[in-house]
Amino acid sequence: MVLVRDSKDAPPREVVELADVTKVHPGGVRALDGVTVGFGRGSFTAVMGPSGSGKSTLLHCAAGLDRPTSGRVVLAGQDIGTLREPKLTTVRRAHVGFVFQSFNLVDALSVWDNVLLPQRLTGARPDHGWAKELVARVGLTGREKARPGELSGGQQQRVALARALAARPEVIFGDEPTGALDLSTGRDVLALLRRFVDEIGATIVMVTHDPAAAAWADRVVFLADGRIAGELLAPTADQVSARMMELTR
Predict the structure, then answer these.
(1) What is the pLDDT of residues 116-150, one digit of tens each?
(2) b vs e for 78-101, b when ≥16 Cβ sit within 10 Å of the residue's Cβ?
(3) Beta bridge partners of 220
(4) What is the Cα–Cα distance from 37 to 54, expressed in whole angstroms?
(5) CA-CA distances (angstroms) from residue 95 to 122, 132, 139, 168, 229?
(6) pLDDT of 175-199, one tens digit each?
C-alpha cells in the first residue's frame, strides 16, 4: 500500500496502514493472514469479528506492541517494522495512545498525575493547559487529586481517555474500552470518544464485540480467520449484528 499525500509537505491521509501483514504465533497459529487496511486521520473505526479472528493481534501489530511475521506497518509515516527498541518505544509514546478494558491506571498516582504521565514519559514538558482541558472534557474537574481507587469504573475509564489524549497522539487504540462498564456508563464513554473525533480530530481504532458500541464509529472493519471480511460505513447496530451473524455461521 502506497502512502498518498495531498502535497509534498502534507502528512499522509492515513495515520496507520497495514500492508499484507501476516502474524504467525509459536506453534504455527496464523493470527493474521495477509491483512491490508488503513485508518484515516480524524476517523473512528471499530474492528469486529468472531472469537479468534485476529482482532487483538491486528490492534497490537498496528500499535507497535507486536511485530508482524511479514508485511509492513506504517505508523505516522514511519515503517515501524524497521525500528528496534528503544526507538520503537519512543515512536509509540509520541504517536500512540491506549485505552484498555482494565483501565490500566497507576493506582499510586492522582487523576492529574495519571493524565500527565504520557507527556512525562516522552520527556516533553507537560502541557498543563491541555491536561486541564482534557480533565474538564471528561467531566472530572474537581477530582484531580483523587486516586483511581476512589473513583467508579466509569470515572476511571474517563481518566484513561484523558491520559490517552494527553500527549496529542496521532492515533488512539482501544481494546474493548467499554467491556468492563455497565450499559449506561459505556454509552457515556463512547459518546466521549465520538466527541474527541468530531471536535478535536482524534483518530480512534477500537476493538469491540458489541454491535451497539460499533455503531458509534464511522466504519466497522470485520475480520474472520485472520483476514479482512468486509466493512460497513456509517454502521447501525442492526447492520453490524446481521454481519456478525453471517461471520459466525
Answers:
(1) 998 888 777 889 999 999 999 999 999 999 999 99
(2) eebbebeeeebeebbbbbbbbbbb
(3) 46, 232
(4) 13
(5) 10, 20, 25, 8, 28
(6) 999 988 999 999 999 999 999 999 9
